[in-house]
# Entry
Amino acid sequence: MPGHHHAAAQGATRVSVRVAVRWIAAALFVMTLVGLVALWPSDAPEVLEGGPFDVEQANATVTAMAVAPCFGTTPADGIDCRDLSIRVTSGRTDGDDASIQQAIVAGGIDLVEGDRIVVSRTAGAPEGLEYTFVDFQRQRPLMVLALLFAFAVILLGRLQGVRALIGAAVAMLVLIAFMLPALLEGASPMLIALVGASAIAFVALYVTHGISDGTTVALLGTLASLAVVAVLGAIFVAATNVTGLVSEESGILQITAGQIDFRGLLLAGVVIGALGVLDDVTVTQVSAVTQLQAADPSLPPRELYRTALTIGRDHIASTVNTLVLAYAGASLPLLLLFTQSAQPLSRALTGEVVAVEIVRTLVGSIGLVAAVPITTGLAVALVRRPMGPPTEDPSVDSVDSVDATVSPVPTRAPTVEEGDGWEGFVPEETEF
Amino acid sequence: MHAHHHGPQDGTAARARAAVHWILGAVAAATVVGAVALWPGSRTDLLVDTPLDIEQHDATVTDVEVHPCDGGDAATSPDCETLQIRVTSGPTAGTDSSIIQTFEQRGIHVDVGDHIVVTRTPGAPEGFEYAFVDFQRQAPLLLLAGLFVLAVVLLSRLQGLRAIAGAAAAMVVLVVFLLPALLAGSSPMAAALVAASIIAFLAIYLTHGVNDQSTVALLGTLVSLALVAVLALLFVGLSDFTGLINTEATMLQITAGQVDLNGLLLAGIVIGSLGVLDDVTVTQVSAVWELRAANPDESPRAIYARALRIGRDHIASTVNTLVLAYAGASLPLLVLFTQSTQPLGRVLTTEVVAIEIVRTLVGSIGLVAAVPITTGLAVLLMGAIAEGGSDAVGAGDDPEATGAPQGGAGR
# Structure
């Protein structure tokens, strides 16, 4: 696919921009590796074996249910409980039949025959008290949902979708194998978050979008914006005096892992949470620039930047309410409580629970906004390559893959007719 | 918009647009009817004069003194601190008082000059009338919000301002309609859908103006939202959630027993995914329009393919967005699970975690579906306007193919 190159005059500067981008990315890569090695957790995380938090759990199926007087009461007392017969289906006591008694309370959990549940076991307790209901088993619906998601992603994103899923899996791996154990050891949460986020960004972006200068630009835009998030986060977490200790989990962790810096943990969460949204925006901007450039190779860089920024502007404008709604959706119970409360709204908003979320979303959003001009500018500087071997050029790579992905489109895309005329499609050099 | 319209708009184009407008009109009417039906009657019962109603005031710390608790001997007794405070709000504003508490309780370090929030128990002995609750955070939060508004307006100018107005409108809908309606015991799913629809109309038209682009984005958003609602119903049902996952939910069961906690979960999923959805749909429509403006002679199919490619990049990056957003917000929980002896499968399927998994996966599936739906609609409508007359164009939910490829054939 031959491009339409107008001038070789600016060739030298374009090439040097590209070289600089590659060098910066390489330097960041080395720093990330050094960070990974330096912060790598020395030994397996200290688990709570034998402690009060170490409870033996097993799967079980409810085989029968009857209503009977509770333990220690007579029928005359009129206090009824549910007597559940269960069969244990996993663990050391697999195959055992036992019984559980449950109080009948309004709004409680009503188990019926056939329910697949999770029980905890207290070895040696008297019959009827050896097992207690913990939770329902949810493996199946969650697996189905995850498969449905993977299916949708692959259907729309094809190969790139597969690679994106791999990228997300690697992100989880970095989180589980490196970040969580390192945090538990008490190392600086901010350092761990930055190194972990950088490692995730490198792997996720290159695996998902391929190794090209376009991806490298998205990566640099992501890391630069991440730095903005980290700095702003540190300033405002300190300024708002949040402790990071309000959740139940933090409360337990303070007992079981007191070495953790909880305010740092909060900051680490802000950085990690922002990463996913950031690489979304930066990749979209780079993609927009390459697509616009391919649609009309004659667009001058200024015009290209302006047009791509328009797409970015729409993106940012829609992002403003994204965060408000995402947070509101996840915190409906809390918001309802505040609606009932006699405290004024400002008091509710500045309490630690809510303030943390406000800092999290606002700091993330500011990083997001900053990512648009940074990434678009870099991408435009790179994409307007005047001359050079096409195989080495990122913009041309991307453009080619448009053609490559076009053929599967007709099977799903209503507006595209089945397989004709695509070979004839080359962006025209149009003046308008 | 700097569209380059070549062909005149004729009957076909007008019909396609009319169909879209009819569908939206029907949705708008349904939304209004729903809002009227579900509108919460009177002001919801505040928790006045209940144990949860605590008088809180602002105060400033004027002095901090660390000493052994109970005046006991320094070697054995733990450290306490006495805070001298001046109350700065409420009925006792201007009073000086003191607070005795364990030194650095819960890791909170109070310094002279700190602006704090205190509760007041009238009639308690000196030193115990007030208790430390929290720090005041108005100033830094306002500053941060100001920074955000500045950044948005700097990048997006007028559109940024309108986006902020749209977000404010969304908050008003939540506070004035959705929350009171939920407290009044309305069906959470119905209330959430009505609220989401109002927010989508307001936010998209306010932010992006009343035009064809916005209308297409809105339609794509509402269709995807319906998909999210159906999936959420299905999987929340299958997963046997109790809704009693956290302190807030448990408290609500006491203070507002009429609220359906599982329904609340569903409502949360719908509201939470709305923001991401309109983001994707607006981006897709914007991409289609910009691609067309960049090269008006390109065929609808070529524009669809290019816009879908932008959407694909978008979706590919979204896959880890949700993983990371969730992980970031739940780091303490995740660290705690790292310490646990339970296998990973068990941890992932406990209610606290499973709810977040369902929330993010259902939202993401809606997100993925939004891309082809919206791009198709946008190209269809844009194609109808530009190529009007040469092709039969289906409208709205009838994705019939547009005409023959015309890429580069225009001149």
User: Anything to note?
Assistant: Residues 1-9, 387-411 of chain B have pLDDT under 50 and may be disordered. The longest helix of chain B spans residues 138-183. The first strand of chain B starts at residue 56 and ends at 68. DSSP finds ten helices and five strands in chain B.
